[in-house]
Design goal:
The chain is an all-alpha fold. The chain has helices at 13-17, 19-47, 59-69, 79-108, 114-126, 129-139, 145-152, 161-164, 173-185, 190-198, 202-210, 215-226, 228-239, 249-252, 264-277, 283-310.
Length: 316
């Protein structure tokens, strides 16, 4: 005897009623992706192969090649700005990120007065970039507390510093921006790492303490392995800016990039701004952006693969 049974639908009628709401919620970010990534980048790629008249040309990429070997149409060489961007990126990821892993964990463990430390830790990151830049610029000006403190300590400063502050001398301008980048980098991922640490079950730490584990063991053997997916994600995203890291150089230098502070991110923005003053020939900065993207893609792909090998996924 053969019986036929009506195949049960994968989703119930009640579940299918939720589909329109889900689709509407997903539609907005998809539309954002299509407009602000696909459309914008497609336009940039097309511009990189066009001249001012809209005709196809390879001259934009030839200009980019000359910019990294000799000089571009504005008599600028981009090797030094590229090096400075890479230095800023290294300072943020090799120095700031490991320190922020430790400091965030210390605050998450709720040490005495941790709320006060957390407020002091986060407040600078809540300030707008323009306000923060103005504040730092005043602190390192001729009469600023940082400059006066260095003078009182007997540090030999260049003569230009006595006229315009630490941001007005070739020897001190970029080191000053680098120092500010490092200080701010300690709190850059505090919110994300705090959320990751708080998801680690407290039973793991209690069990480790019963076995006599110290602070270092809890941090490096339990906490960090448990948040390894978060660490891997943060580092992967950071690789995207490995060649374009730019820490408010435009604001710190009033748009000049002088005193050997220019970075590749600043140069890309500045080139677009200068070309916009004389017409609509954006082919060169578009070609520079495409070139930087091509250089970054293998770094991100290989870096993601390497990070996934280093950080094993731990289920908690």
């Amino acid at each position: 005897m053969v019986t036929t049974e009506k195949k049960r639908s994968k989703y119930s009628r009640l579940e299918r009623k939720d589909f329109p709401f889900v689709y509407l919620m997903v539609l907005f970010p998809v539309a954002q992706f299509l407009v602000f990534w696909v459309y914008v980048n497609a336009s940039s790629i097309a511009l990189s192969f066009q001249n001012a008249a809209g005709e196809f040309t390879w001259n934009n990429f030839d200009t980019v090649f000359k910019a990294f070997t000799k000089a571009d149409i504005f008599n600028r060489n981009l090797i030094d700005p590229l090096k400075r961007s890479f230095i800023l990126w290294l300072a943020g990821e090799l120095l700031c990120f490991p320190v922020s892993l430790i400091t965030t964990y210390v605050l998450t463990r709720k040490i005495a007065g941790h709320y006060i430390f957390r407020v002091c830790y986060i407040v600078p990151s809540l300030m707008g970039s323009i306000i923060w830049t103005m504040l730092v610029s005043e602190m390192v000006s001729v009469s600023g507390p940082v400059t006066l403190l260095l003078t009182e300590l007997g540090v030999k400063l260049p003569d230009d510093v006595t006229l315009g502050g630490l941001l007005a001398a070739n020897e001190t301008a970029f080191p000053t921006i680098l120092a500010v980048k490092v200080l701010m980098g300690f709190i850059g991922n505090n919110a994300v790492l705090t959320g990751a640490y708080t998801r680690v079950p407290t039973e793991l730490f209690e069990s480790a303490q019963l076995d006599g584990a110290d602070f270092g063991t809890e941090l490096f053997k339990i906490a960090i392995p448990c948040i390894s997916p978060t660490i891997c994600t943060l580092l992967t995203f950071s690789l995207c800016s490995i060649f374009t890291c730019d820490y408010n150089v435009w604001l710190f230098t009033n748009g000049s990039g002088a005193y050997e502070t220019s970075t590749i991110g600043f140069e890309l923005f500045n080139l677009t701004y200068m070309l916009s003053q004389g017409g609509n020939d954006y082919g060169y900065p578009a070609a520079l952006g495409v070139t930087l993207t091509i250089l970054t893609m293998p770094v991100v792909i290989f870096g993601k693969w390497a990070l996934e090998k280093i950080f094993t996924n731990v289920e908690v």
